[in-house]
């Protein structure tokens, strides 16, 4: 049985950095618009010309891909932190503190929080860490299949029961809902708290039921990929290259077809069901292609500086994820923020994402030049160990008394 690892793996950190940046391309819609506009892009503001192009780009290359990577890496992190011995170490205190931080994030800052989801499922996933890679992959695929029945099957059930009358009633209800939510969010931080808390609660229940099996399955697969050496860039370059050459084009084709299906079908219930089915599968394939590509680049010396830049961002993924919320909340929620909710089109949302990417890619390596951990990583670690951990570089690595 192996003990938890204490060294850093640049390949995993780099992939985590890419994942935390990538999820913002999708999450920005949840900050800037009503939650339902995330699933139905026709719900709010313009969806023509450049705005449609931005949506198509994000849907093809980002939708479900980077949260897939995050879930996979979370599973790998469980094996890294807990090892595969009988003792789970500090895994459960770590998950409990993540749950507490996630609850604060979800109910006070942003309803789209993923930390609560990960903390709860992480307490289950740790039980599987001693399985063989093959068993982990098999069970992971089974769980992913369960969610496909819920998500994809639910989409086609919606097609079966759709009617012009129900669509008209839903549109009227959503219009009133959108107006009320926009007014509250623009009014200020306190005014929108009931809306945010309500959506956080509903979102957490829905995510556990509908997406929980997929997330848990991806955690299992992440454990298998770590144990097999895939995520530590231990495989040969040719192997990674072949995998990337197969999975990236296939994944892109599935996701591109999903995007064009929705656009050509004018986002009808049938077009959305067909498109989401393609995305469900395509996102898994393309995410694996992204991971294979990153592992390949991590083995090529000429890319080492770029890989290390993303690795620094990944080492501070917790801080960067929550700082994205603080930035976006200030921009889109009213006093003390700017209150731009419901007014920033997708093109400008895209520009905001690029700016945040640049800031986080720059500030992460600068911070880590002086400190051992990101600020929130340090807080989480200190809470887990029950004492302040050394933060400045050059200090003893042992926990402070």
UniProtKB/TrEMBL annotation:
Organism from which the protein derives: Maricaulis maris (strain MCS10)
Transmembrane annotation, as ranges: 14-33, 54-83, 95-124, 136-157, 199-226, 238-264, 284-309, 321-344, 350-371
DUF418 domain segment(s): 225-386
Name used for this protein in its record: DUF418 domain-containing protein
Highest taxon listed in the record's lineage: Bacteria
Pfam families in the record: DUF418 (PF04235)
UniProt keywords, alphabetically: Membrane, Transmembrane, Transmembrane helix
